[in-house]
Write a structure and sequence with these properties.
Elements (H helix, E strand, L loop, with lengths): L8 H18 L5 E6 L3 H17 L2 E2 L8 E6 L5 H19 L4 E6 L7 H8 L5 E3 L7 H9 L4 E3 L20 E5 L1 E2 L10 H5 L3 E2 L2 H13 L4 E5 L16 H9 L6 E5 L8 H9 L6 E3 L7 H6 L6 H14 L4 E8 L6 H14 L3 E6 L17 H24 L5 E12 L2 E8 L4 E5 L8 E9 L4 E7 L1
Parallel strand pairs: 1-2, 1-3, 3-4, 4-5, 5-6, 7-10, 10-11, 12-13, 13-14, 17-19
Antiparallel strand pairs: 8-9, 15-16, 15-18, 16-17, 18-19
Helix pairs in contact: 1-5, 8-9, 12-13
Bound molecules: S-adenosyl-L-homocysteine, iron/sulfur cluster and FE3-S4 cluster.
S-adenosyl-L-homocysteine binds next to β13.
Length: 469
């Protein structure tokens, strides 16, 4: 069964032609764009595509909204507060639009797929002229053309949730890249809005994924992160002829590809085959981002996560046996409806037991239209806050413990950036298992691999020294 639709080659070339026609008009005007991205890596990757279109059309990227001719917000709606923040951000652009009437203000991303949102925003903010959802990226030239002709556009229909291959992209990062392997989500965790806004799960074809990676490596990229809401269910519908573990094997021999990361993993689908792939493929990194959400099996059942505390712990145990230097990070929600003090203590004890390298922790935020938002026994905000604080304090202590293990550790680090402090330049980068280390060095080592020995651990970070460049 293949339930995936692909955007046709003729439609894609129609959009590309339109982009090139627009470029004739835009290039001489020396226009600039500014894109601000909220939310997860999916949105970061989508923004690269939009920036790719804008570049093809002849805009150049600029550093601030104040000087741009095209401003775009790529939005997230996974938690509630994002909406207020967006409204504030858009309101603030009114002044810029008054000063530069040619300014195009656009909003895209997950929040725009929420029912009624696009309409509401167009009505409330007359200075916004373009709104589009996560499945309209391939139609950007057509939309921009209409806006340049004075129209106000909202394109948020799902259009069959088709996959578009070969869109342009502009990436700011020269060493590491995100590669989508699937779109959407079918898991319907009861708290989560993502399946409603990003549509059903669709996997890209393995050949398309591999050829994207090959061309990234040709530009100097050595680290890729395979992206999906649940990468472990890649190809589970049979549409690609390959499951996730096979995909890992299939892409792992791309010459020059030093590191393969992936996220997120859903515990219900992380099977033995994937564990073996992590253990045996030399460039698959020894790090799994494995969101647990809660340490209490009853809450997990109400979250519709489809695993128990025991199952989760058994995955951790099995992977640690196979891959001794593996590190885990996680996502946790506190204050889910019906979470008793006792259930919350189960989350604390799980965090104590596992020893995550890091945890992203959230207070439950009711999302309209989801099952959990309709549940009784919602937890009062002050209780959620207290629990969040208690959890964060525990994780802070676990992070320190985890860091201490690394004193004396030697390994290869990919240099991601530097801080200049007076005379000294402090480089930072990650070991393959995601642990970050800071060490003195020179800026020329940016994007290179160096061997670093950890000499000291502090509250939040590791300090080290280079033993070979
Ligand atoms: N697909 C990924 C997660 C995407 S959302 C996965 O399943 O792992 C990122 C994180 O946001 C989730 O893991 C969850 O911890 C958090 N989250 C999602 N919906 C939430 C809500 N309604 N309230 C609070 N946190 C939420
Ligand atoms: Fe949301 Fe669950 Fe899908 Fe993750 S797996 S995006 S938490 S529904
Ligand atoms: Fe947010 Fe959309 Fe990602 S809702 S978390 S940007 S998939």
């Amino acid at each position: 069964m293949n339930n995936t639709n692909f955007v046709s080659e003729s439609e894609l070339s129609r959009q590309r032609d339109m982009a090139l026609t627009l470029a004739k008009e835009i290039v001489p005007r020396k226009l600039t764009f500014f894109v601000e991205t909220f939310g997860c890596q999916m949105n970061v990757r989508d923004s690269e595509t939009i920036k790719g279109w804008l570049s093809l059309i002849g805009y150049t990227q600029c550093e601030s909204k104040e000087h741009a001719d095209f401003v775009l917000f790529n939005t997230c709606c996974v938690r509630e507060h994002a909406e207020k923040r967006l409204m504030g951000n858009i309101g603030a652009l009114k002044e810029l639009k008054d000063a530069n009437p040619g300014l195009i203000i656009a909003i895209c991303g997950c929040m725009m797929q929420q029912e009624g949102m696009a309409k509401k925003l167009l009505k409330r903010f007359p200075h916004v002229s373009l709104i589009f959802g996560t499945n309209a990226l391939h139609r950007f030239p057509e939309m921009l053309n209409a806006v340049l002709n004075g129209e106000r556009i909202a394109m948020t229909d799902r259009a069959g949730d088709a996959i578009a291959e070969g869109l342009p992209k502009l990436r700011d990062n020269q060493r590491s890249a995100f590669v989508n392997i699937m779109y959407g989500c079918d898991n319907y965790c009861s708290y989560c809005i993502v399946p409603y806004v990003r549509g059903h799960e669709r996997s890209r074809m393995p050949e398309d994924i591999r050829s994207e990676i090959v061309s990234l490596v040709e530009t100097g990229i050595t680290e890729i992160t395979l992206l999906g809401q649940n990468v472990n269910s890649y190809g589970n519908d049979g549409s690609t002829g390959m499951r996730f573990a096979e995909l890992l094997r299939y892409v792992s021999d791309v010459p020059g590809l030093k590191r393969i990361r992936f996220m997120s993993s859903h515990p219900k689908d992380l099977n033995e085959d994937v564990m073996q792939a992590i253990a045996t493929l030399p460039n698959v990194c020894h790090h799994v981002h494995l969101p647990v959400q809660s340490g209490n099996s009853e809450i997990l059942r109400r979250m519709n996560r489809k695993y128990t505390r025991e199952h989760y712990l058994s995955i951790i145990e099995n992977l640690r046996k196979l891959v001794p230097d593996i590190e885990f990070t996680t996502d946790i929600i506190v204050g889910f409806p019906g979470e008793t003090e006792e259930a919350f203590r189960d989350t604390l004890s799980l965090v104590e037991e596992v020893g995550f390298a890091a945890a992203f922790t959230f207070a439950y935020s009711p999302r309209q239209g989801t099952v959990a938002a309709r549940m009784e026994d919602q937890i009062p905000e002050p209780v959620k806050k207290q629990r969040l604080q208690a959890l964060n304090e525990l994780q802070a202590r676990k992070t320190v413990e985890n860091n201490e293990k690394y004193i004396g550790h030697v390994g290869e680090v990919l240099v991601e950036g530097y801080d200049e402090r007076g005379e000294e330049t402090l480089l930072y980068g990650k070991y393959q298992n995601f642990k970050m280390v800071y060490f003195p060095g020179c800026r020329e080592l940016l994007n290179r691999y160096v061997t670093v020995k950890v000499t000291k651990s502090s509250k939040n970070s590791l300090l080290g020294e280079m033993i070979d460049a």
